[in-house]
Amino acid sequence: SHNSCLRLKVHIFSSAPFAQYTFDNDLLTPEQRLFYEENGFILIKNLVSEEDIDKFRNEFERICRQEVKVPGLVVMRDLAIVKSEFVPDQKAVSKLQDYQEDPELFRSLYKCVCSQLILNYVECFTGPNIMAMHTMLINKPPDAGKKTSRHPMHQDLHYFPFRPADKIVCAWTAMERVNRQNGCLVVLPGTHTGTLQEHDYPEWEGGVNKMYHGVRGYDPQHPRVHLEMEKGDTVFFHPLLIHGSGMNQTQGFRKAISCHYAGADCYYIDVKGTTQENIEKEVQEIAARKYALDNEITFTDTWAFRGRLVQGERISL
Predict the structure, then answer these.
(1) Under a CB-based contact definition with an 8 Å cutoff, are residues 241 and 155 in contact?
(2) For 213-222, how does the pLDDT look when each residue is reduced to its tens digit (9 = 90+)?
(3) Rounded CA gap, 162 and 113, in Å?
(4) What CA–CA distance (Å, rounded) separates 170 from 234?
(5) In whole angstroms, what is the distance from residue 147 CA to residue 74 CA?
(6) Phi, psi of 92 (to 5 degrees)
(7) Are 308 and 132 in contact, with CB atoms under 8 Å apart?
(8) Who's near 222: CB < 8 A, 6+ residues apart?
(9) Per-domain residue ranges of the chain
(10) How far apart are CA 169 and CA 260, in angstroms?
(11) Which cofactor does it need (predicted)?
């Protein structure tokens, strides 16, 4: 039967000396570790408190209304909404990134994404020395009819000039109920065992939001899982897992907090001559405009600046 087969696999896994994608720190059960090893993601229910999420939401909405200015903050806006009806509110804002410079915002985010409870889980994938490399609030707006609220299928590793991939993990926390109607995450289980694919902008009729690169060639027939989540649920997933999200067909905004962590003993790589050259060029152009530094800032610099040690000691990142 399926259950006895699963029990046998768990027994073999728990007695095996080596696992490629997880560490044993007595938090994940053998069943959960086996699931992540095979699928590249694991959903943990009710990991972040409602109180912490609501505090962060309040800070976010103040920024959208331009009641507070955050130095260095990157605000990404939805292509279709910006063109049609921009007002100083959350309507056009699709993502907030790089808010390390705002103590209140970073403190409230920190409680959400760097609580000891979350870091205990992160340690299962990165080991004990942990860097928070990239924090982001995702505010998927109601689709304006151009389907621009979709996020093409992609692998997060495409954006990262550091390795090894197996010591990087994303924690993606739902700030409210997330379902197929408001554009939940869609994952292709098992694709984390493959390699980094070529990415570029998909040729979508309504246009594509800035930096929304997609995998050039993946099997559209590959089984997919829609990750429907409740407020406070967190999914952890591998940076090679192919994933994306559908459009938001509701009138509300679908908010989530995303944080990428890496083992502090990861190392930077030169992406020249690889499929990541296109994203390197785009990031350098944005950074050069933001800091008025021409081409003096490197792709690696943009990540070294963002990274924050959140547990243990900073080794090579």
Answers:
(1) yes
(2) 778 878 888 9
(3) 21
(4) 10
(5) 23
(6) -95, -10
(7) yes
(8) 188, 191, 242
(9) 30-311
(10) 6
(11) ATP; Fe cation; L-ascorbate
d(CA 199, CA 214): 5
Helix or strand (DSSP H, E) at 308: strand 308-311
Ramachandran angles phi, psi of 243, nearest 5°:
-155, 165
> What are the structure tokens assigned to 239, written together?
């940076």
Closest by CA to 152, choosing from 115, 222, 207, 112, is 207
Pick the CATH number of 30-311 from 3.10.20.740, 2.60.120.620, 3.30.160.620, 3.30.230.10: 2.60.120.620
Phi, psi dihedral angles at 170 (to 5 degrees): -105, 135
Question: Could you count the other beta carbons within 10 Å of the beta carbon of residue 204?
Answer: 15
Question: What tokens does 224 get?
Answer: 């997919």
What pLDDT, on a 0 to 100 scale, did the predictor assign at position 224?
A: 92
Per residue in 275-314, pLDDT tens? 888 888 888 777 776 666 666 778 888 788 778 888 999 9
CA atoms of 266 and 304, how far apart (whole Å): 12
Q: Name the token pair of 131.
A: 């860097």
| Cβ atoms of 155 and 215 closer than 8 Å | yes
Closest listed residue to residue 115, CA positions, set 31, 210, 165, 51: 51
Beta strands per DSSP E along 53-167: 74-77, 93-97, 130-140, 151-154, 162-163
**DSSP letter, residue 135:** E
